[in-house]
Batch of 3 targets.
Target 1
Amino acid sequence: MTRPRLFSASSLLGQTLLLAAVASGAALLANQLRPHGLAWRGPEFRAIALAEMTTLVLSGQAQLVDARPTAEFAAGHVAGALNLPEEEKTLALQRVFRQLPEDQLLIVYCRGPECQASLRLARFLAQNGVPASRLAVFQPGWEALQAQTALPLATGAAP
């Protein structure tokens, strides 16, 4: 006597694909609900090196935007940088948006190479009307800025 098959190969494949789709959907939803979810590919932002950034800032062609928390900014930042903390970006956007120059490149930085806040903030600015062509990210961040000598550093709260 032949035993009945509980699952056919096509049925098993269909169930596997369904399970994968449900798991992917749940993962995407969980990522959207997290305050600091994984960054999705969006507009590409220009990565900028320290030498070029220094030249642009000193010549008045670029404005630095610091994505670090307010307390870290107050402890030290590049003089003239605007503070738009990632975790307060929605609240701070109106205050800072008025200060963003329309004719300069905006260079966003955060703590250092491992910090993704600068990329997320650049994406946020692009979603709120700043053309991606006017945005650049200095990925080495504050760690590299503290070691350089061309740009003046300052302490204290943002103006």
Target 2
Amino acid sequence: MSHPPGLRAVLVRHADHGWLADRFGSWADAHEQARAAAFHHHAHRQDHVISHAALRLVLARTTGVAPGSMVFGHSATGKPWIDPADMAPPVPAFSLSHSAGHSLIVTSAREAVGADIEMQRSDHDWPRLAPLFASPADACAISPAATALLACWVLKEAALKLTGEGLSRDPRTLAITSSGTDRFSLQGTDGGFPEIHARLFRWPVGLHGAIATFKAELLEAIDIECAPLRPG
């Protein structure tokens, strides 16, 4: 079994996938189990459990490796990858993000990928938080203005998950420029950072998402699957 060309993206609504919480215990490794146990709030723990079980299921259907048999490794900054020992090349790259009862899972046959989602919430004071991650020029590159800061956050998060740096890198060192409708490029303001291409997505429930790659052409034909995953 092989990954289809390009990027595959799946949006998972956790309310439709409670059954995945039951599979998590038999599929997850010690690292995933420990992270789940560290959550104090049930809703946050459930988001983690369902999102990671969904990731294993999506990858299993791509690679032919059983969900509970897949082995993950992690870089020094925490970026996960699949151990290639038990599968034929190419080993797919992937990125997972979850927020407010939803997960976005993006896989790629050969190219690195980063993804992030965030729910628009009234208790997030984005103008107050903006100096921690954005510049005025970043927000001006994105429309509509009402959600520009939220969009800026998911674009930068996706880019930093692509590189594997996460928030070990100051997001203010990434500059966002528009390259078309919902298409953006991100470049480092401190040098030594490759150009990143990203696409912004919005859903009616108030969810914002971004997918980032090093190759702009991979963003042109993404069809995000929203149908519920099925057991088996």
Target 3
Amino acid sequence: MDELQRVMCVEDDPDIRMILEFSLARLGGYTLCMCASGNEALDKAAVFAPHLVLLDIMMPGMSGPETLHHLRELDFMRGVPIVFLTAKTMPDELEGLLQQGATGIIVKPFDPVTLPKDIRIYWEHGRGTPEGLNLALAEQFAQIRQTFILGLAKRESEIEHAPTRADLNAALHRLAGAAGAFGFEDLSQLARSVMQASHQNDESYLLKLLAELKQTLKTIRGTG
């Protein structure tokens, strides 16, 4: 296979799937197969025959590493580059992911402008030079970004009414990744801080950060 053409994206968050489609299909010109779960990726892999897979780490049901393991069991997938998408940034965490058999790692928040060339690096082990958005694509990106903003009320509700701590952390993880991809770096970092406080069971600090997060979401929506 001489050219990278077909890319499978496995991501449960619809906003991140939207930015992946914008980045890789509209900017990169790749043919995409979008999957919302590991099971869907396994169902579609044989027909789509991806040249490269972008795989989220944290997903409900089958996790990213579990999906990677099952994909590697398929004969036609053994030589296909599989790149993890993750919000993890600690060196030992990243090394652990590579040891599970991933070709590489792209850390969220990723740059949608450079992502098409970033994945090509894993495909051809070369280097690329980022290209800017032209006006038409910039307008399209602005529309997609506005859709994300309009969806923040739903994300706030998911966080506020999360039935379990695991559900809360999953909602925060999705928000952190999507916010970073759409250029809301402060929101992304705040969501990560809330998630860290949740993992540490620091209830007073967690409540303080949740209140700050709620106000930040309202401010971005223009209702603060």
